[in-house]
Amino acid sequence: MSGWQWFWTLVGFIIYIVVLIFLYFYQPFEDLFTLVLNGLSHHNAIFWVVLIVGIVGFCGYHWRAYRTHIVQQRSVESMVLTSLRGSTFAAILLSAGAALQSVQILCVYLLQDGYTLGEAFGKRLAAVVALVVLTGIFCVIFWLLKVMRPARRA
């Protein structure tokens, strides 16, 4: 990075920190944050973290793919294929995060007093199995997309 890029990056980070500090003390934002994240607890915190990482990664991946394939290479076909790969990877991340969250919920259920191996246990176990299978399907799709190559220009 050149000197000006470092400068503007530093200015951007400082503005970002100032905005976060402002929002921390701004009461309407705190009320909105509390309203939106009302159900956030230790039972679903893993999925929320994975969701935020997935959204940020999805946006960053597509921005990088756009800059590489559209701006530099001028190849729409490569952009579409790369976009599909990125979307499938985000789906893998989200479904694996949901599977991990469901395993955590199952473990919490099994560790509580007086649990039974009945209908509630079966539903939780079925959710884990379904999410692991869904993650596997997305992994196969991702692998197939990695094998595909865009057609060469004449």
Q: Can you walk me through this structure?
A:
This protein is mostly helical and 154 residues long. The protein has 2 domains: 1-38; 41-147. It is built from 5 helices and no strands. The protein has helices at residues 3-25, 27-36, 45-72, 76-111, 119-147. Helix 3 (45-72) packs antiparallel against helix 4 (76-111) and helix 4 packs antiparallel against helix 5. The longest helix has 36 residues, at 76-111. The radius of gyration is 21 Å and the shape is flat. The protein starts with a helix and ends in a 7-residue tail after the last helix.
Lay out the secondary structure:
Blueprint: H1 3-25, H2 27-36, H3 45-72, H4 76-111, H5 119-147
What low-confidence regions span 5 or more consecutive residues with pLDDT below 50?
none
Task: State the helix count.
Answer: 5
- The average pLDDT is 79
End-to-end Cα distance, whole Å, is 35 Å
Overview features:
single chain, 154 residues, 82% helix
Describe the structure concisely.
The chain has 154 residues and is mostly helical. It has 5 helices and no strands.
